[in-house]
Amino acid sequence: MESSEVFTGQPSSRSTDTVESAIGSIIHLLRPGVTNLSQGMVYWTPPAEAVESAKIAASATRTHRYGPIQGAPELLSALQEKITRENKLTNRRIMVTAGANQAFMNVVLTVCDAGDEAVLFAPYYFNHLMALQLTNVTPVVIESTRTDSFDIGLDALRANLTPRTKLVILVSPGNPTGAVQPESVVRELQKLCLERGIWLYSDEAYENFTFDDARPHFSPDGPNVINAYSFSKAYSMAGWRVGYIAYPPALESGLAKAQDTIPINASQVSQQLAVSCLQRGSAWVREQVQTLERNREAIWDAVSVMPGTIKTTGAFFFMIRLPEGVDDLKAAEFLATEFKVLLIPCSSCGVSGYLRVSYGNLPPDECVEAARRLKAGLLALRERSSNLA
User: Fold this and answer.
1) Which of 16, 82, 150, 195 has its CA 20 to 30 A from that of 371?
2) Prediction pTM value
3) In angstroms, how far is CA 336 from the centroid of its own chain?
């Protein structure tokens, strides 16, 4: 029997005013037979022995209990050694989070107040914008310099900094661009933020993914820098939800409050899997990343039919330049419906006229087949572009 009661409450304007995620805008197109080239995942699985260790950990008593807010001691120790050896970071504390997205939310809650400004370089990672909107932080969007590498524009940044600027967000290697920012630019960015009293958030989730003669990945260091990392990409732990941040000691109390309020601690069993993955280390990761070379070349062959598309050298994405006037959402719908490949419209990332394609989430043979359909679809799109405006 239906209730006659009427409830007049409404969701918060904070939630309703937040943009929909890029994946949310196109997931309805992922029907049977459609190949997913949209999400930032890898096709391999974690090391087999690491998965076995997680199975054993699942029956341990401590797995069923709350854990330390900062993270499991053995994982914190391994990560401290990793960021010192591989990332050359100094004077840092570690916090393990339920993925890098939750890490970013912890940081925003800790360093920004409502009404403060945070800078995003477009094309930006869409979940970063969503986190800012959900916390009433004002996003200031600066378009990256459109060269052959999507380099960020420091002159434009200087012109847009205000007394309300609290945070600048850097993603390198980039999502969605695949761009690797030059070390000299990253150093200058860190110095500029330090001089202005601004925190720099360095999202390095794709640190292991560089190709060709790419600029080497560089991790900025300094008392104003928070470096963020993820187990989702290199170790294929997307479903296990483990990320971590390396942060200056001054932020420890605030970050602990955010952590204690949101997850309390990252999953205990997931952290044990992460410990075992680190025992295999970067050599194992490099072996997996090398298997993406065939994927990368197959997808590049497909997307290079679109003039203006840039072959960036990091992460596992290309941004496909669409013909002038083509609506990117309509283009995504066209490719999914007619050619059974799903891509992300980059209007969700702050720029129109592009699609993001991922070449990481399919085994090589499947990726080659998907690339064949993508190439056919893009050639057809060029011919029918007037119908997709």
Assistant:
1) 150
2) 0.95
3) 23
